[in-house]
């Protein structure tokens, strides 16, 4: 009897792996959008929507760890919606405000030029008299 180590037995390798069956549904765990929520909470907290998204993201992560995939998917969807609203509100509203300020300044400068032309005209004595 041979007791030398390591024992190596050379057997032909057979693959016992089976491919996924066409009827099997693989469940991908939902994303919790935690990084996006943290970013919205810290940098672009529009009406506290980033904080609400962060709360839903943490809940989604807890549900995912606990194994409740459906609740995690539902909470993840809410977190994504609040993140979209926070991002859109924090990006679109300042752009809209900037556009309004620029158009207001342009309109006021045009009014100022027109009024300067009106007040700079001099009325002579011949303009006031009837002929």
What can you tell me about this protein's structure?
It is a single chain. The chain has 131 residues and is mainly alpha-helical. It has a domain at 38-124. Helix content is 63%, strand content 0%. It has 4 helices and no strands. It has helices spanning 34-42, 49-66, 69-120, 125-128. Helix 1 packs antiparallel against helix 2 and helix 2 packs antiparallel against helix 3 (69-120). The longest helix is centred in the last third of the chain and has 52 residues, at 69-120. The radius of gyration is 35 Å and the shape is rod-shaped. The termini are far apart.
How would the blueprint of this fold be written?
Layout: H1 34-42, H2 49-66, H3 69-120, H4 125-128
Helix pairs in contact: 1-2, 2-3
